[in-house]
Amino acid sequence: MAPTLVGKQAVVVGAGMGGLAAAGALAEHFERVVVLERDTLPSDAVHRAGTPQSRHIHALLAGGQRALDELFPGFEQDLARAGAVPLRVTLDGCIEMPGYDPFPQRDLGFVTYSMSRPLIELVVGRRVERHANITLRARCRVRGLVPSADRAAVIAVGFENADGESETLPADLVVDASGRGSPTLGLLESIGQPMPEETVIGVNIGYATAVFAVPDDAPSDGKPCGRFPTSGRAPAAA
Question: Taking the model in full, what pTM does it have?
Fold first, then answer.
């Protein structure tokens, strides 16, 4: 069945993983999709200011990997061609855990990939750029969402473009993938609507990432290595 167009233009705020995936999903249902990103979009797998957490270890869970491959057929092959290392889950890894020496290895029949967050984003961004009706606009800072006269819908997005000029993009649909939801919260405040109810869950942990040289005597029977200490702290991975 051919996709059904539901509108002329959709605007996505943010070109991170959420925004890029949303743009890919919308491409078949709108004549045009415009993605507004405040950062400069790199042409290589490098960190950018808008994703400060990208320097930590990242991984795609099975569900997310399958979803991206369905949205962008051939996505997993694209990852491998871009330099991601394929890993047979629990078979290619070396796990060190107290009481298990060695930790049993099992082939669960699933392949995942070892790569950085910037590489995942780069591969998805390149797939998005293949859509002729998707436009990625970098260095565009969204200033606000424009409501309709009756305040029942969002009809446009106001932003400052790369030249520092103000622009307004009409939109039949707006996806706020900015990360913190500031445009949406600002809209609700401007039209006198109450803020969404918040549920705060405290997580009393912290984590850090560091890069180490692989020692000459490191085990060679696994690509990644995970070490589970006896203290009950989170595992270390390499």
Answer: 0.84
